[in-house]
Design goal:
3-stranded mixed sheet; Butyryl-CoA Dehydrogenase, subunit A, domain 3; 9 strands; globular; alpha+beta
């Protein structure tokens, strides 16, 4: 069971203290070099396994920490403050786990979740295809039933953990002729093996270290027992349930990056001097700092509100959409302002500002673009407050 906010106080403090020590000792000293080399952080991943981060939100009955979303967002903010890529390594994995824990059969949960929690099996979600991103109902990956298994064919791209991971929750079409289209979609857990072909690791502007890959499934044999929930046609519902946690996570990442850009700028502005005084005393810089701090706090409050709503098992389309939109835009704006405050140093690889500037745009795209979030928010508002 996932613990309530009230009963988490002591445990939350212990977990967050452990995360702080982990970040200070095992991530911060190495993040810049690993980022610039675009190197998979093998030792950091092993430390995350030891901490239990791959089971952070998985119920204790299945070997996880059983943390609620409220605590989880605080962890993500802390991690993203130091190196955003690390948060992506366990976030995609936990979306997969959330979809399974919420919609899988008890037998499936008993079989898979303990191995997810330890990081023995580590992966993510495979939704996006070369011709399909935001419109998930347009996917072409096909799973055809044959006796006690399915034969899956298709291609997926921009999939986190697809190169270094060993299992993915793959969204497929089991009935391409179904109307409405979502009734023909199913979600499968597919382990790497015959017919699972990783084509390449994709090169990116930012968000380095974590692997974003492209793979194909060519006559890949998948047991019927790997169909989440055991019933065809419910895949979109299943993945949207997992993505609710994913959007809250991305919001928390936005808070972390926005906070990093602000805190670095606040410190720099007090030691950098022009015209005989620290630049924080110049009105132009002071105004930027005030706006940056306000964005961080506003984004954090929206993210916490979405997490608390998620913890009550409410539908959180509105709350998660608002949090994701506000926090990721805050990250974008703060990263840009940090670049301006730092001047040439912000453009240098010897500082972290240029990393924030490269990482922030992804947050506005991932887990549903911010344009889509605005549409979702508007629809939910009309539904919630009819005239």
């Amino acid at each position: 069971m996932v613990a309530s906010v009230e009963s988490m106080t002591d445990e939350e403090s212990m977990v967050l203290d452990s995360v702080d020590r982990f970040l200070e000792r095992d991530v911060k000293p190495y993040a810049r070099a690993l980022e610039h080399a675009d190197e998979w952080p093998e030792e950091i991943v092993e430390k995350m396994k030891e901490l239990g981060l791959f089971g952070a939100t998985i119920g204790q009955d299945y070997g996880g920490l059983g943390l609620n979303a409220t605590t989880y967002t605080k962890i993500v903010e802390k991690v993203a403050r130091v190196w955003m890529s690390v948060s992506g390594i366990f976030n995609s994995h936990l979306i997969m786990a959330a979809a399974l824990e919420k919609y899988g059969t008890e037998e499936q949960k008993q079989h898979w979740l303990p191995r997810f929690a330890t990081g023995e099996l580590r992966g993510g979600i495979a939704l996006t295809e070369p011709d399909c991103g935001t419109d998930l109902q347009a996917i072409r990956t096909r799973a055809e039933r044959q006796d006690d298994h399915y034969v899956v064919n298709g291609a997926k791209t921009w999939i986190s953990n697809s190169v270094r991971g060993n299992i993915l929750a793959v969204l497929t079409k089991t009935d391409p002729k179904a109307e409405p289209r979502h009734k023909g979609m199913s979600l499968f857990l597919i382990e790497k093996g015959d017919g699972f072909i990783v084509q390449k690791k994709l090169e990116k502007l930012g968000y380095k270290g974590i692997d974003s890959g492209e793979f194909t499934l060519e006559d890949c044999i998948v047991p019927h027992d790997n169909l989440i929930g055991g019933v065809e046609g419910q895949g979109l519902q299943h993945i949207l349930g997992g993505l609710a946690l994913g959007r809250i996570n991305v919001a928390a990442r936005g808070v972390g990056v926005a906070r990093a850009a602000f805190e670095d700028s606040l410190a720099y502005s007090q030691v950098r001097k022009t015209f005989g005084k620290p630049i924080c005393e110049h009105q132009a810089i002071a105004l930027k700092l005030a706006d940056m701090a306000t964005r961080v706090e506003a984004a954090r409050h929206l993210t916490e509100a979405a997490a608390k709503a998620y913890d009550t098992d409410e539908r959180v389309d509105l709350e998660a959409g608002m949090a994701k939109l506000a926090a990721t835009e805050a990250a974008m704006e703060n990263a840009q302002e940090a670049m301006r405050i730092h001047g040439a140093y912000g453009y240098s690889k010897e500082f972290d500002i240029e990393r924030y500037y490269r990482d922030a745009p992804l947050l506005c795209i991932g887990e549903g673009t911010n344009e889509l979030q605005r549409i979702i928010i508007a629809k939910q508002l009309v539904k919630k407050y009819p005239a």
